[in-house]
Amino acid sequence: MACRGMFEDNHDEGLQPSGQRHRLVVPPEGAGIRLDRWLVQAMPSLSRSRWQALIGEGEVRLGDAACCDGGRKLKAGQVVEVNVPAPRPAEPVGQDIPLHIVHEDADLIVIDKPAGLVVHPAAGHEDGTLVNALIAHCGASLSGIGGVRRPGIVHRLDKDTSGLLVVAKNDAAHAGLSAQFADHGRTGPLERAYLAIVWGAPRRAVGTVDAPIDRSSKNREKMAVVAEGKGRAAITHYEVLASYPAHAAEPLASLLRCELETGRTHQIRVHMAHLGHPLLGDRVYGPGFVTKAQKLPDAARQALETLGRQALHAALLGFAHPVTGETLSFHADPPDDFAELQEELAKL
């Protein structure tokens, strides 16, 4: 990379930098570049957010003084000294929680997450999460992502959404996967597709919802489609795979394949509700459709009650391996409760 710095220490820059000190010299082509951005280019095994944290903690020096401003523009020949502390023990504790592992290697792990499992500890879910399970499963193989020895979460699934999720096991994998998800597959093989069962059926069998999403002004725990120019861009492509009853002029429900071009919180749930076709079982974004369940036959209504959540499953995940560059693609069948609902609806 053109802006990579010249190392004056004895460390191989391909190694994980945690617990090491580095002295770098800004090359001529690095002049005028922000400090945080240049450090990512010079030592790409750490993510930009990690570098920003290290800068804020005073671990990066320009000349004789610590620099806490990641936006500082660099000059050619300037000396940048970096101290990357060894990672601290994981803050969440490891817990022996069963995992359905689809793929695992030294750099990453792909999980078929069951519905009901929270991805990351948060208020109200301090333990019993996927992170707790991964810490127990991976043990010492985890690296110092964010300065803490824990798995690197680069994307999430809602608690009640099942399906495929990839997690980084070291800094280099975390940086590489984060870059792909930030790029949303525009220049690489990243691909994410979901199965969703919605009320009714969109008028077009194949379509795109291009509508920005932001926190709802009426309920801060919900997301909502907002006016153009506000919120964050959100694009969902969908295809109707089946309608229930089949060939009905106004189907009661339908099965969709939804492909994400962006990855916003609750994106598919919000976009489908915006179209007027919220997901079955989604009490947050489809409360007005709860009574529609009364139109279902007893067996289908019971299957929906058994599901007890939004009918959404992450069925396809593809990406470039962040270390080897190999294109990986994974498929996961929906869980039994989702498949049972689909089977009963097909009988309509």
What's the short story on this structure?
By secondary structure, this protein is of the alpha+beta class. The chain is built from seven helices and 17 strands. Helix 1 (35-42) crosses helix 2 (48-56).
Element layout with pairings:
Blueprint: E1 6-7, E2 20-25, H1 35-42, H2 48-56, E3 60-62, E4 65-66, E5 79-84, E6 101-104, E7 108-113, H3 130-138, E8 152-153, E9 162-168, H4 171-183, E10 191-199, E11 206-210, E12 213-215, E13 223-225, E14 235-244, E15 253-260, H5 267-274, H6 298-307, E16 312-320, E17 327-331, H7 336-345
Parallel strand pairs: 9-16
Antiparallel strand pairs: 1-2, 2-5, 3-4, 3-5, 6-7, 7-9, 8-9, 10-15, 10-16, 11-14, 12-13, 14-15, 16-17
Helix pairs in contact: 1-2, 6-7
* Uncertain segments: 1-16
Instruction: Could you tell me the CATH topology label of the largest domain.
Output: Pseudouridine synthase
Strand content: 25-35%
Order of secondary-structure elements: EEHHEEEEEHEEHEEEEEEHHEEH
Shape assignment: elongated
Q: Give the class from helix and strand content and strand pairing.
A: alpha+beta
Question: How confident overall, as mean pLDDT?
Answer: 89
Biggest sheet architecture: 10 strands, mixed
**How much helical structure, as a percent, in the residues?**
10-25%
Q: Please, what is the CATH homologous superfamily of the largest domain? A: Pseudouridine synthase
Number of helices: 7
CATH class category name of the largest domain? Alpha Beta
Rg measurement, Å: 23 Å
Number of strands: 17
Q: What's the structural domain tally? A: 3
In whole angstroms, the N-to-C terminal distance is: 59 Å
CATH architecture classification name of the largest domain? 2-Layer Sandwich
